[in-house]
Amino acid sequence: MARRTRFLAYGLAFGLGGSALALGCSDDVNGPPGGPTASLRVVHSVRSVPSVDVFVAGQLVLAGLSYGAASQFAAVPAGSQEVAFRPAGSSGAAGGTVLSFVAGDSVTVLTVDSSSIINPWVLTDTGAVVPSDKSKLRAVHFAPSAPPVDIWRTQPDWQTLITFMFPFNHQAASPYMQSDPGTWTVLVSSEQRQGGIPVLQDTLLFTGPITVPAGESRTVLILDGASGGLQYEVIDP
């Protein structure tokens, strides 16, 4: 059975201060005890919390995930399971909600700062199927401290910067853009209009080359920079 990928975002019900750490990867600590499984990946996008531990059904599955980092996929039990986040190394629950894990699914969860009820923010994977001779790329705006921005791209068959869509608001996801296999780039600029059309006036972030092979897709996640400004993470389906 082909695996489906779902992207969701969950609030962190704590608002701790402290400087963010450098990018890092977490460890898959505890696997499920047996039976059908799904795969969970977490992208930590709350800059005020330097790193988090991730619990599923009360078990630690990802430890010490640094701000701006995407974890490896961890096996979790299929079915309805509570997902909870804690500041790395701390005790006591720090937010949690029940997520349905379908056997064979891949689920990517983005953390979102929340001081009240934890609600899912769902980013669907519509349009992710890629023809065998093409590549696809999309952008997701998860930088709450950024000013109004436009997000641009070049793609293998078009080397002039063009926008994904506009406006491009916080927590928006662009459609997948399709091109030939090869090199893409993404650029973020301050929002500027002439006659209602986006105009490139500066560069807040430039990714450099992002290679997407034939038949594959990538998601470029725009985040607040660990020390100010912006940073990005490229994630596979």
Would you give an account of this structure?
- The chain has 237 residues and is mostly beta strands.
- The protein is 0% helix and 50% strand.
- The protein contains no helices and 21 strands.
- A five-stranded mixed beta sheet has the order 6-3-9-1-10, with no helix packed on it.
- The two termini are 16 Å apart.
- The model is unreliable at 13-28 and 116-120 (pLDDT under 50).
Specify the helix fraction band: under 10%
Which term fits the overall shape? globular
**How many strand segments?**
21
Number of helices: 0
Helix/strand order, N-terminal first: EEEEEEEEEEEEEEEEEEEEE
Rounded to an integer in angstroms, the radius of gyration calculated over CA atoms is 18 Å
Biggest beta sheet attributes: 5 strands, mixed
Give the structure's gist in a few sentences:
The protein has strands at residues 5-12, 27-28, 37-43, 51-56, 59-66, 74-77, 79-87, 94-101, 106-113, 121-123, 135-142, 149-155, 158-163, 177-179, 182-190, 193-194, 197-198, 205-206, 210-212, 217-224, 230-235.
Structure characteristics:
about 50% strand, about 240 residues, mainly beta, globular, five-stranded antiparallel β-sheet, about 0% helix
